[in-house]
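Sync notes, pocket subgroup
Present: LS, DG
LS reminded everyone that the earlier model was apo-only. Rerun requested with zinc ion included. Inputs:
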Amino acid sequence: MLPHAIREDDNPFALLGLTPGLQRLLIFIRWTSYKCPHCGHVFRRNFWPSAIRLESGQRKCKECGMLFDDGSREWPELPFGRRLRLFLPPLAIGIWGGFLVAAVISLYVSPRDEHSWGVVFLVSAVGLIPVLAWSPVALMRVIYSIHRYNARGGAGV
Ligand SMILES: [Zn+2]
């Protein structure tokens, strides 16, 4: 059992949220740092905290050379919810949600007739393009991950 990487949320502009003026928007600049549990060396900064990474989980620190568990897992080890999130990244879902909301709003601003629902359907379908474009990329990552998992002979870390 390897020690887990240290995860730290950095929000350097948090206090600006209390001040008036446009600089308040800087509070949205935040990231998550992952550090080696042995020496504290930062090996990754993530601006998208829920990103799913398909790797063995075992990482060797570039700084001190010690092994640790960086929290990534191969596909066969991922729980269902995280598998789903790999194929439906929050950004794509956000874009689709935006299109859907715009389509529904259009129902209220335009006179209602039988064409309106067709527009909602069409706009929703267009909003799904980022998800569809992403799927083959996600699928390739899954295939590579399963290969790596099988090559090392099943459960690790
Ligand atoms: Zn280290």
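DG: The two ends are 6 Å apart (CA to CA).
LS: Residues 75-157 form one domain.
Action: DG to write up.
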